[in-house]
Amino acid sequence: MTLDETFLSYLGGINNNDLINILDANLIDNCEPQLIRRSSYYDTDKFTELTQTKKSSFSVLSTNIQSINSKFNELEAFIEELSSNNFKFNVICLQETWTSENDDLSQFSLHGYDCIAQGKTCSKNGGLIVYVDNNYRSEVKLKLNMYEHWEGLIVQIQINGGNISKSITIGNIYRPPRTSNDNLNAFINEFSSIVSLLEHNCKNTLIIAGDFNINLLKLNENDIYSSYFDSLISHSLFPQITFPTRFTRTNGTLIDNFFCKLSQSMLESTPGILIKKLLIINRILCL
C-alpha cells in the first residue's frame, strides 16, 4: 500500500478524496498538456528522496503556521535540516503569522532569505510572510490589505539562468473560515479581479499559494465553491494540490493550494503535501 493509500484509507480511500475524480472528466481530458495532475503525500523519508532530485528546481513551500512566534524555532530547524542536505526552498509562504503591521520581525529572520511581511488585516489570526531566497531580486507588487474578507501579498522575483522563467510572480493569500454566502461571494468577486490583473500583467509564471478555506472536494455540492473554481480556471490558473490538506478524525478537506499559471518550460512541476509533525501540513511545489 502506498503512502497516499495508507494516509487516506480511514477517510474512504483515494477515490473519495481526490479532486481529479470530482472534476468534470472533459476538463481534465482537454488540458493539453495536462495541467492538473494528482499530487502526493510525503513523509520525511520520501521527501528527502525528492529533494535529492530537485536541487536545481525552483521550489516553493506554503503553510498555515498559526503563529510564527510559537512555530518559528521548528521552521528554522526544518530549513537548517534541509540546508544540511543541500536543499533550499526558494520561496516560503506563511499564512496566519498573527503579526501586526508595525511588529519587529527581526527575530524571525531566516538565514539565506529576505523576509517580506504584511500585518494582519482581515482577522486577528491573519498576517502574511513571504521568505525569498536572497540570491534572487524580489519586490512587492501588491499589498492586498484593503479587503474585509481576505488578505494577500504579491511578490515578483527575478531569476537569471537555468531552465526556468526569468520572472516569477508569487501570491500569498489568506481567507479566514467564514461561511456566509455574502462573504464568499464578496471574496470571489474581489479575488477574481486581482487574478485577472495578475494574469494580464504576468507574462511568465504565476503561482498563488495560500489558505483559502474553500473545500475543493465539495465543488459538486456547493454552487459558490464551483463558481470560485470556475473563475480561477477561466484565468488559466490550475490547482496543483488534489488531496486533502486538513484532517479531523472523520474527514479531510482541501482548503489549501497552489494555483498556477505555468510557463511552457515549467509544466512538469511536482506538487505535494509534506507531513511534518510540528508544522503539520505543508504544501510543496517543485518546478
From TrEMBL:
Cited InterPro entries: Endo/exonu/phosph_ase_sf, Endo/exonuclease/phosphatase
Protein name: Endonuclease/exonuclease/phosphatase domain-containing protein
Organism name: Ridgeia piscesae
Domain of life: Eukaryota
Domain (Endonuclease/exonuclease/phosphatase) ranges: 61-261
One MF annotation (Gene Ontology) recorded for this entry: catalytic activity
